[in-house]
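BUG: 3D viewer hangs when loading the predicted structure for this chain

Environment: internal workstation, default settings.
Expected: structure renders.
Actual: progress bar stalls at 90%.

Input used:
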Amino acid sequence: MEKYCSLSAAFGCLASKSGWWLVLLACGLAPGWAGAQEYPRRAPDFDRLAQELFAEIQSDQIPYEDLYGTLLNYYQSPLNLNTASPEELRALPLLREKQVTALLTYRRANGLLLSVYELQAVPGWDVRTIARVAPFVTVATNTPNSVRGPLWQRLKNEENNALLLRYRRVVQPQKGYSPVDTFQGRPTLRYLGSPDAVALRYRVSHAHDFSLGFTAEKDAGEPLAWRPGQNQLGPDFLSAHFVLYEQGKLKTLALGDYQLQFGQGLLLSSGLAQGKGAETITSLRRASLGVRPYAALLENTFFRGAAATYQLAPRWEATAFASRKNIDANARLATDSLAQYEEFSSSLLLTGLHRTATEIANRQRLAETVGGGHLGYLSPDGNLALGVTAVGTHYGMAFQKRNEPYNLYEFHGQNNLALGVHYSYGWRNLLLFGESGRSSGGGLGTVNGLLASLGPNVDAAVLARHYDADFHTFYGNSLGENTRTINESGFYVGLKVRPLARWEVSLYFDQFRFPWLRYRVSAPSHGQDALLRVAFAPTKTSLLYAQYRARLKPLDLPASLSGRALPLPGQQLRHSVLLYADAQPTAGLGLRTRLQATYLRADDGMPWRRGYILSQDASVQLARRVSLAGLYAVFDTDDYDTRQYVFEQDVLYAVSVHALYGQGTRAYLILQASFNKHFTLWLRYADTRYRHQTTVGSGLEETKGAAHSEVTAQVRYRF
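Structure tokens produced before the viewer hung:
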């Protein structure tokens, strides 16, 4: 392997000097290399990528399943480096702007790449970058799909074709599954389904050709029922999609469930949009990926209907989409004769859980119709991209949030129209990007940024944002401190420096303010967020880093602490420290150690509270087709506010993020066995033990005792 890598690098250097040598060698040697030296694509290590991309996990409400699903899309339909556009390359948060520019320049000078190994000859593409992107990219010729036969034949012969079945269950009996008589005959206070969680997924896809798949899921506590009148046909959640690509001028056609991503995500955003994190530069930008198939298990982050992208002219593309689905919401009748609406919904329910009678009554109660389009332009050199987006939303029932001061500017009514324009311009090692929009009622939003490579080992980023308190988008996800693009202004500065070989220093500073009130913040407020990470990679397979993060955020203090009759915002200060070591002593052994600590103070003069977790996990290749992974962790936190979130390894295509608080230990084991090239089995057992507790959890999730255990089994059959 090392010998071939050296040969590939030397070949690339020679090719960059003499283009005709590249043509000669490609014609004479490429067929042999394609068969004997194909780069082995390994499954992505999502756990390690999460450690590198996210600064600190502080919530279980972030759609990690969606983020993972985006990386999964890249793995199942890898990006062809020979044909990828600048926007498609920038969609990978693993690439710096200088690396994108270098690859495009190399391609123009030398033609198609012959192998992923040739990336070593591209300036700025170091071994670590190549290893990170390798699972998500490929090098292939631009062969028309028609050459591979009709669609039915391509579907039949596709290797990326698999059926997956997953089962999960909590071992201890939970209160929600107790007999009805223990709840005084009130069935609304218990789960109506079994404690088994089951998911069935099937997908067959080929990059830039087609994607076909369906998903069926039943969460724990949800009943299996046949209620066509309530849109339930067995499992609680059903999803399916069929997407075609590159059908002449019809670039994309999606039927069923899909996602949309245009501009900087101000109006339409989906998938890998992690925002602020340890990746302080590339995570700021978004890419206009257009229409994408939806195959995740989240029940509220997609459109359902049809979408199509058509090439109007060599540099112009137009996308039209229409979606109609029912979403979870409560419904209320007006009690005041002067009320604006006789019946209205005061909140959307985003958990996707339908276990109790109340949750089932709110299931898919609100009809949502969304339609719109996008017109995009790309310059001949690919450096300038412009676009216009329109999104119209109609609810079948009026939407009106509770009459609270912080909801004064929230959306109300049934209709919303959002219009936006976006741009992206790359020049040498600079990238300018931005998007601005306006929603019904006059609310404005804008986000603008700059990425720059200031030298071979220095990258910088600047981003300014402003979202009015009455700016409303329901599928937007541009960068911000809030979970939505509303009621916020901010200015972000990021820097990444590689002072020595194998060393990297990343930092950012973000200052933000909220012009209007927020939930649990009873006055206009402001805050700050800063991060510093120092990383060292001793070898190609090991990584060490130390990270410090400080966050100053407003939060109402109780009246007893603020000394006033009413709660007033204080400044909650959170210090977070993270030490992480990832090593692979041998080819079959991987070790990861993590120490994470949090120190929290509600306001000046208030006492400090703290929490920490120390974890050690290991993965062992027991045999060629059998591997074992496990973790043991010790945690100790003062309260729920100092809880610790940690990514955990799980079965393939699943994400585990647990909130640990109190005192105790956490452990799990995962066994993976491949019986042949078609059949693979995963078994996982996870166990949390608490000290000084006689029950675990609360409400219907409560279990007796000090332990909480979970079993997971998954099988995959590749056709």
